[in-house]
C-alpha cells in the first residue's frame, strides 16, 4: 500500500521528463556550444581527479616511497576534492539534458552505484587508517588493508570512467 501511494504521488518518469523542459536544460539542448563545453569540463576535471587519485593510491600501494604518505595524501586530496566538485557539477548539468533516458539507463545507474562504493571506500580508509597513514614516514610500508583499499580505489575509479564512456552506447 505505501508503495502504491508513492507511485501515484511521485511519477518518476514524469519528473524526469519535466526536468528536460527546464529553461537551463532547453538552453543546453539548443546551444551549439554549451553542452560540448560542459562535457569537456567534465572530462578535463576527470583527468585532474584521476591524476590526484593515482598519486594517493600509488603511494598507499607502496610506490612513490620517497614521499611521506600523510602530506602526499593531504595535498593530492585537496586537488581531488576540487576536481570532484567540478565533475559532479558538470555531470549533473549533463544529466539534466537527458534526465528521462539516463534515469532508466542501467549503465548510468551502475556508474552511480560505483561512485557510491568508491566514496564509501574513501570514508572507510579515512576512518580506519588516517592515523597510521599520517604517522608513516617516507619509505614506510602501510598495512595490507590500506593497500587493498588503494587497489580497490584505482579499480573503482577506472571502472567509473569506463562506465561513463559506455553510457553513450547502451
Can you tell me about this structure?
The chain has 170 residues and is mainly α. It has helices at 2-9, 12-19, 23-30, 34-61, 69-97, 99-102, 106-135, 144-166. Helix 4 runs antiparallel to helix 5 (69-97), helix 4 (34-61) runs antiparallel to helix 8 and helix 7 runs antiparallel to helix 8 (144-166). The longest helix has 30 residues, at 106-135. It starts with a helix and ends with a helix. The mean pLDDT is 92.
What's the structural blueprint in terms of helices and strands?
Elements: H1 2-9, H2 12-19, H3 23-30, H4 34-61, H5 69-97, H6 99-102, H7 106-135, H8 144-166
Question: What labels describe this entry?
Answer:
81% helix; mainly alpha; 170 residues
Give the rounded overall mean pLDDT. Answer: 92
Q: Biggest sheet, in brief?
A: none
Order of helices and strands: HHHHHHHH
Total of DSSP H or I helical runs spanning 4+ residues? 8
The best one-word shape is elongated
How much is the radius of gyration in Å?
Answer: 19 Å
**In terms of per-residue confidence, which ranges show pLDDT below 50 for 5 or more consecutive residues?**
none
Summary of the model, kept short:
With 170 residues, the chain is mainly α.
Amino acid at each position: 500500500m505505501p508503495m502504491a501511494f508513492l507511485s501515484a504521488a511521485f511519477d518518476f518518469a514524469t519528473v524526469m521528463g519535466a526536468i528536460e523542459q527546464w529553461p537551463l536544460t532547453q538552453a543546453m539542448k539548443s546551444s551549439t556550444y554549451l553542452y560540448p563545453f560542459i562535457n569537456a569540463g567534465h572530462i578535463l576535471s576527470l583527468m585532474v581527479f584521476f591524476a590526484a587519485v593515482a598519486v594517493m593510491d600509488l603511494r598507499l600501494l607502496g610506490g612513490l616511497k620517497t614521499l611521506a604518505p600523510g602530506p602526499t595524501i593531504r595535498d593530492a586530496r585537496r586537488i581531488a576534492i576540487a576536481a570532484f566538485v567540478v565533475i559532479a557539477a558538470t555531470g549533473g548539468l549533463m544529466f539534466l539534458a537527458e534526465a528521462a533516458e539516463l534515469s532508466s539507463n542501467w549503465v548510468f545507474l551502475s556508474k552511480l552505484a560505483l561512485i557510491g562504493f568508491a566514496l564509501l571506500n574513501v570514508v572507510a580508509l579515512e576512518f580506519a587508517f588516517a592515523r597510521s597513514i599520517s604517522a608513516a614516514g617516507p619509505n614506510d610500508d602501510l598495512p595490507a588493508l590500506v593497500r587493498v583499499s588503494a587497489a580497490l580505489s584505482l579499480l573503482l575509479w577506472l571502472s567509473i570512467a569506463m562506465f561513463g564512456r559506455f553510457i553513450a552506447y547502451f
